[in-house]
Q: What sequence folds into this?
């Protein structure tokens, strides 16, 4: 997946060797200002898929002004991932 639409906005999804926020190495980030989701490309496929869902949940949170905590984002992403895997939905590339 290289693009994802959320609430009428299109986020570009980038897979990178380094993802940093203020010089701190991360696995992922969702940058609403620039409409970019960055995912570290060195993770295995299941973790990459889960991480992408996590960042999409952040984008949903931003676009719909839900104001979730990080823990709520994590719980929602884990739940969505499990539903998609258990029901054989096609996973992200």
A:
């Amino acid at each position: 997946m290289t693009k994802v639409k959320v609430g009428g906005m299109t986020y570009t999804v980038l897979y990178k060797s380094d993802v940093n926020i203020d010089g701190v190495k991360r696995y992922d980030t969702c940058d609403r200002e620039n409409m970019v989701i960055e995912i570290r490309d060195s993770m295995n496929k299941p973790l990459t898929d889960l991480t992408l869902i996590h960042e999409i949940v952040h984008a949903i949170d931003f676009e719909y002004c839900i104001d979730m905590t990080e823990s709520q984002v994590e719980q929602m992403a884990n739940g969505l991932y499990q539903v998609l895997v258990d029901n054989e939905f096609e996973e992200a590339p």
Summary: DSSP finds two helices and six strands in the chain.
